[in-house]
Amino acid sequence: MSGQLVVTRHGESEYNAKGLWTGWTDVHLTQKGKNDAKKVAELIKGIQFSGIYVSPLIRTTETLDSFNEILHLTAPVVSAPELRERNYGIYNGQDKWQVKEKVGEEEFQKIRRGYDYQPQDGESLKMVVARVVPYYREVILPRLLAGENILVVAHGNSDRALIKYLENISDENIAEREMLLGTVLIYTVLDDGRMDTKTELNADIGETAKA
Asked: In angstroms, rounded to a whole number, what is the distance separating the alpha carbons of residues 86 and 84?
């Protein structure tokens, strides 16, 4: 059996709290986000990590800082641009619900959850998969197969891109999957890098904005 792959996302950011699309905008966590990250850390307190991979965006590094207050992590940390959030292009910084009113439910869902919808100047989820999955297979997977436990701290969509591969989810069905704040997914994997076992844990973080 492989080592454990622990997939998490950042805590509530300033833009999450306001209902804004964040994308590559580099915003901080709210105080709630920092507190919630500590609750998430409690869920994985018993796991000893050999490696940690984070997005370079500040909301993920601040999440890891909050994890550290509980976990006192000593494993090397790699900042990987491949794990950045999806770039929403012209929608970065816009209010999601105002956009929904403007474009309608069908178009809104394409923007928010569609697999191959590419906003102007932005990325589709398909494009995120194209950078996340090769990085996972080339860099992270060999360590898992060597028995190491690896922590990934990323974003709603970069996590979804990884989950799509791990769980072999179709292009159509990935629209139904979310990676909610406060969720931890723990996988063991097969030789091809896909899921062998999966455990889902959820911290009690109360009301929070959906990404």
From this structure: 7
Where do the structural domains in the chain lie, given as residue ranges? 8-202
Of the candidates 85, 76, 60, 79, which has an alpha carbon nearest to the alpha carbon of residue 143?
Answer: 76
Q: Order of strands, edge to edge, in the sheet holding 183-189?
A: 77-79, 51-54, 150-154, 5-9, 183-189, 195-202
Active site positions, annotated: 10, 85
- What's the rounded mean pLDDT across residues 180-197? 97
Best CA proximity match to 205, nearest among 17, 52, 7, 6: 17
- Please report the pLDDT score of residue 207 as a whole number: 62
Average pLDDT over residues 42-53: 97
Q: In CATH, which superfamily holds the domain spanning 8-202? A: Phosphoglycerate mutase-like (3.40.50.1240)
